[in-house]
Amino acid sequence: MTFAQGPLVWALVVVALVAVGAVLRARAINVKLRRNHAELRQERDALLHQRDELHVVHNTLLQRQSAELAEVRKDAEEETKAVLKAAVRTLQGLADEQQVVIEKAQRKYGDDPGILADLMAMDHANSQFGRRAQGIAVLCGGWLGRRETVASVFDVARSAQGRIRHFDRVRVNGQVNFSVVSRAVEPVAVVLAELLANATNYSAPGTPVEINIQAVPTGVCLIVDDAGLGMGQEEKDRAAALLSPQAAISVSSLGIPPQFGFAVSGMLAARYGFRVSVDSVSPYGGVRAVVLIPDELLTTEAPPAAPAEAPEAALSPAPQGRQPDQWQARAQSQAQPQHQAQAPSPAPAPTPLFPPAPQPDTATQPLAQITTTAGGLPKRRRKSPVSAVPSTEPAPVRSNEETASRLGAFQRGTRSGRDTTTTEGTEFQ
Amino acid sequence: MTAPGEEQQVSSGFVRSYVITGGRGLPDAEDLSLVTLVTLAPDRQPPPNPSPEVKAIWELCSGGYLSVAEVAGHLGLPVGVARLLLQDLHQQGHLLRRKAPPPAQLVDRKILEEVLHGLQVRFG
Lengths: 429, 124
Description:
The complex is a heterodimer of chains A (about 425) and B (about 120). With about 425 residues, chain A is α+β, with helices and mostly antiparallel strands.
């Protein structure tokens, strides 16, 4: 039995030993594998972490790159604008200079219809050139140039009319007794000119384009109507986007050939505080564009005397000579208002070569009335002394009341000139 | 963007002359010469909605005869433009025109001598 059991036991022992050995080895392997696995997992986690980090870095780099790209683009755009602006500024100056030269020539050679017609054609071309230059200047953040004096709304409309090619198709209707303040004169004229250019370009040749001037409670409207085909919804949306005050306009996005009418209008309107809209339909079927000039940009101040005065004064050596004379003549004519107020127009009076014209009752008129007419044009007549030599006659003697009332009138006049909201009565009556 | 102070000043005229004429052809210089005198016809009403220039001419000419050159000078417009506006008003019957007074004729020397002689005979 033992013998029989002996080898079996041994065999079992051996098997058991082998099994134990195998188990031990397997365990060892298992442990090793586990460790490996843990290591690998750790490594993987580390790598994953690294990947995430890299991802973040990549993202930040991407962001930085796009930011830098945008900045570079912006810089490039700004540089382009700066260069264009500087170049165009020269052109603007030259156009203005040329305009002055042409004007002088027109006055000098005005007697010859042939020459005058040619000069007018040059003037017309130059005006359009000037408007284009102004448009580019505005898009580049530049300025239009500043006018020193106010201009009546009617004249602003006519000035705009003169800056487009087909000015003869434009009709200006309606006049209001308002002027545009000097700083807004050019902007409104340029915007109106752009709208007129659109209106004439996108309507059949020969059809009229109308500007209607209307006073509204918040200001004055300039309504441009054309008889074209109108605009589609897409065009209207684009126009509205360009005209909105927030519109960001880049010079490169205006297409070739650049269509910058609306962009210019939008920028100027936002900068100077008036409104432009093109979303309505004109009664003639085309587009109705409306410029609303608010009260802040309007004044009741009458436009200054003849526009010719400025260049003339610049030429003549003694520009001051005329003005005091005029005042003096006025003062003298006021000294005998009873005579003149009743004088009929072409009175066959024996002595005066140039009979005095009927005059309004100057005592009740503000001073502005004295040198200009209701239409804002100079009231200069031949009867005023022509000589530039100051009169040696003693000033007419006035009573105290007369002096007081004249001073009062002067004060009222200057106040009403400075004050746009008319303060009638109470204070001054 | 530049400050408003850096703005250039615009000095050219505001309303162009071809806008005032409406792009029409200009009349001949012979039609209304520089020295032709014009004045308002009596009892005329100004046209409805006159342009500022027409209004100014109306007021200038209501004071008596004025030459074409003077009207243009007062308006600050080229003569050709003023001429066109005056011609319009004339054609509408608002303006009277008259040729410039002829320059004074020189008196014949012989007559002067005879008068001198006569005076000398009588008083001399």
